[in-house]
Amino acid sequence: MQSVDKVVEKFKKSGLKITSQRIAIFSLLQEARNHPSAEDVYQEILKAYPTTSFTTVYKTLQILRDLGEIQELTLDKTRARYDPDVSEHIHTLCEHCGALADLHWSDFIMNNVRFYGSEKANFEVHRVQIYLIGICRKCRMKKWGLQE
Amino acid sequence: MQSVDKVVEKFKKSGLKITSQRIAIFSLLQEARNHPSAEDVYQEILKAYPTTSFTTVYKTLQILRDLGEIQELTLDKTRARYDPDVSEHIHTLCEHCGALADLHWSDFIMNNVRFYGSEKANFEVHRVQIYLIGICRKCRMKKWGLQE
DNA sequence: GTTGGTGCAAATAGTTTGCACAGTT
DNA sequence: AACTGTGCAAACTATTTGCACCAAC
User: Fold this and answer.
1) For chain A, which residues make up each domain, given as ranges?
2) Which of A62, A130, A144 to mutate to test the interface with B (most CBs of B within 10 A)?
3) How many helices and strands, by DSSP H and E, does chain A display?
4) Which residue in A48, A138, B23, B109 has the most C-beta neighbors within 10 A?
5) What does the buried/exposed string (b/e) look like for B77-103 if buried means 16 or more CB atoms within 10 Å of the residue's CB?
């Protein structure tokens, strides 16, 4: 996701209006590193703007997604989760604690996969999603009774 | 998924019972190449066994998943889809027609990704899921007005 | 003033569960 | 006979929509 200012510009250019709720949502997502669900974003926004509704959060997330400012992750079967980092990167999902995390510096792999799909499979690749499902470092340490 | 006979054996060994409905579900999945949803399986089973209920299909799919005989794909936000091929392979999702397809001979890539996660990210990888989202060959041909 | 946004409440859709009866072992 | 499976209906949960009022432009 671009800076709040740029997103505001983008909204205006598209004929969309800027409200205090939307600014709050933009700002929150800007900082978010935990891949929040719509409900998560809503709960967080409530703290600062107790009058905001879930519907508003939901609709704004939709728009941001459609504008390509955030990406929707669907690995979690129960709820969609959002990532303000739209660059292609691998996600890890811990089966123990449910944490969804980013795996940076995975460009090489992502490019390989993309190439593979385009060249070998004759598929017009728009997006690549890679998920590693397993146990994160934290949970592994706990399992062995070690401190972090 | 293993052969129907082997799955039957596995069920019996686990103290689970074999019914005509379950045999029908096993057989159907054996042949399925279209990554059916629970509803898809149900509709198909109905043709041969009009008395079968959705609940039965649903519960049997759960068991098969838990036994590791089929894998649950969650890319499709609206419904879970099931793949009797539990080997790791890349899936493609066409944004146009919604088709979810397998990409075979992707072992090299899958192994690379797995290695990357384990070695570079210190993440205990249990499963890898890779999705390519874009436009399939069929829809691309149509777009250009070409025959298949 | 026009147009789009907000927020409530209700509709929708897939998933999941409780329970009485039936079938498998 | 004991125990699991089946199938109906209902509960649940996240998502999505209709609509009246409000706010940005």
Assistant:
1) 1-85, 87-148
2) A130
3) 7, 5
4) B109
5) eeebbbbbeeebbbbbbbeeeeebbeb
**Regions of chain B short of the pLDDT cut 50:** none
Is CATH 1.10.10.10 the classification given to domain B1-85?
A: yes
Q: 0.70 exceeded by the pTM? A: yes
For residue range A91-148, what is the model confidence (pLDDT) as tens digits?
998 888 878 888 877 788 888 889 888 887 789 999 899 999 999 888 888 877 766 5
Provide, as residue numbers in chain B, all residues whose Cβ is less than 8 Å from the Cβ of A135. 123-124, 126
**Inter-residue contact A75 to A113 (CB < 8 Å):** no
A1 against B145, higher pLDDT: A1
Place of tokens 């989760």: A81
Amino acid B136: pLDDT: 87
Which nucleotides of strand D lie under 7 Å from a protein CB? 3-9, 13-18, 23-25
Considering only CA atoms, name the residue closest to the C1' of nucleotide D6.
B56
Closest nucleotide C1' to the C-alpha of A54:
C7
Give residue B34's identity as a one-letter amino acid code.
Answer: N
Q: What is the CATH number of domain B87-148?
A: 3.30.1490.190
